[in-house]
Design goal:
By secondary structure, the protein is mainly alpha-helical. A two-stranded antiparallel sheet has the order 1-2. The two termini are 19 Å apart.
């Protein structure tokens, strides 16, 4: 294949999308560092707070995904994205202004509804800005936002807590905002600037790299596509979902584990683990992108799936060992190693979906992926760990035991599913080649 030059504006667009994705994960994951004061303020159990972390957030993110996917395939994508960023940024700030737990949950639901615009829109834009031979690295760079954002949520959260924890601000209606609430406001409002930046992007031509002009896409066309490619897509999405289920479960409860078991403060956890998340995640995602592209160039058609399966399997023993190490420094290193391998596994998914989905149906296909991943990974990952802690072990101080069991099982399942997806993917490619 002759390499085509990628215009500079494509890389500029990718940079804007990466920044927006980073902000999405900052607003999503800063809650993990604030679990203990939130539990105290609203008198919650681990299971109850996990519903806010995961189930409620993931459920509404998933419910919003399909209609937003249709908007992405039929409307101006940059406008959809800018609106979503604005909604989730205001809602993230509103988490700090909530006067009750139901109000807090409502604000988190609005964060999830706004974030549902992010990946379907971004993947559709990337598909029309980059040629196929650069799709692996382009999607990998975008996926860095998950790990950079998660790490920055810890670092910026730790910084904000250390500077705001002693503050109280009296509101006009007679209520005071405490330090942990100010963290949500301080990290949420800057996203409005990113929304304005996204709105300034130029809308690319749909199907810019398609072999033939693309017809208008109907709802029936989208349904037929999803049904026809069902088995390969379902298995790929499930493999990514189980890998990220482990990742979200660890991310949700690692701060509380170090606070409860090792006696660390939230600031110490953020300062120590934040950089580890960023470095390990960036390395893992880039390994997935470059490694997958290299295997495809060598003619290994299922190379990305092999990388996905290997990454999940390698992550499992590190995830099991990390909570059992009594030296906290060694535990952090093991958690970082697990995060790197999970990033390799999950980072292989977007490029696979880009290969399968036609340019004018990328919004819907990635919306389905978002639905699958968020119902399972975000919806169940934190909650399963919490349920095991509360109802099997029965002692929240022993959350480390749940972390040593639940995420490794999820990772082994992810590896098996990825291997099972190889045959359906080969059949799909053989069918596509004959068309």
């Amino acid at each position: 294949m002759t390499s085509r030059r990628t215009p500079g504006y494509a890389w500029y667009t990718l940079a804007v999308l990466l920044v927006a994705y980073i902000f999405a994960f900052i607003d999503r994951h800063v809650l993990n560092l604030l679990i203990e004061p939130i539990k105290a303020a609203y008198h919650l159990s681990d299971t109850q707070v996990s519903l806010v972390q995961g189930f409620a957030f993931g459920l509404f993110l998933s419910l919003a995904a399909l209609p937003i996917g249709r908007l992405v395939d039929t409307r101006k994508r940059t406008r959809v994205l800018a609106t979503g960023i604005g909604v989730w940024s205001l809602a993230a700030a509103a988490c700090g202004l909530a006067v009750s737990f139901p109000a807090f949950v409502t604000a988190r639901i609005m964060v999830s509804a706004g974030e549902a615009t992010m990946t379907p829109t971004a993947m559709s834009l990337i598909g029309d800005r980059f040629p196929p031979e650069r799709m692996g690295i382009a999607t990998a760079i975008y996926a860095l936002g998950l790990h950079i954002g998660s790490g920055l949520a810890l670092l910026l959260g730790a910084f904000a807590i250390s500077h705001l924890s002693a503050l109280q601000i009296a509101l006009p209606w007679g209520r005071a905002l405490h330090g942990w609430q100010l963290v949500f406001v301080a990290l949420g409002l800057p996203g409005l600037l990113v929304a304005a930046w996204a709105a300034s992007l130029r809308e690319p031509t749909r199907g810019a790299y398609a072999a033939a002009p693309l017809p208008p896409v109907s709802l029936r066309d989208s349904i037929d596509f999803l049904v026809g490619k069902g088995r390969a897509m379902i298995l790929i999405n499930l493999a990514v979902a189980f890998a990220l289920m482990a990742s979200y479960g660890i991310a949700a409860w690692l701060p509380s584990f170090f606070i409860r078991h090792h006696g660390w403060s939230a600031v110490m956890v953020g300062q120590a683990y934040g950089p580890a998340v960023i470095v390990s995640g960036v390395v893992g995602v880039l390994l997935a992108g470059f490694g997958g592209d290299a295997l495809v160039r060598r003619g290994v058609a299922d190379g990305r799936l092999k990388i996905m399966a290997a990454g999940a399997l390698i992550a499992a023993p590190f995830a099991a060992l990390a909570p059992l190490l009594e030296a906290p420094g060694l535990g952090l290193i093991a958690f970082a190693a697990a995060n790197l391998a999970v990033a390799v596994a999950a980072g292989s998914g977007p490029a696979l979906l880009q290969e399968i989905a036609p340019a004018h149906m990328r919004g819907v296909s990635h919306a389905v992926a978002l639905l699958t991943v968020n119902v399972l990974a975000l919806g169940l990952g934190p909650s399963v760990v919490a349920l095991v802690t509360d109802h099997v072990i029965g002692n929240e101080l022993l959350v480390g035991r749940s972390l040593a069991v639940v995420p490794p099982i999820m990772l082994v399942v992810a590896s098996v599913i990825a291997l099972c997806a190889r045959a359906p993917l080969r059949r799909y490619r053989q069918t596509a080649a004959r068309l």
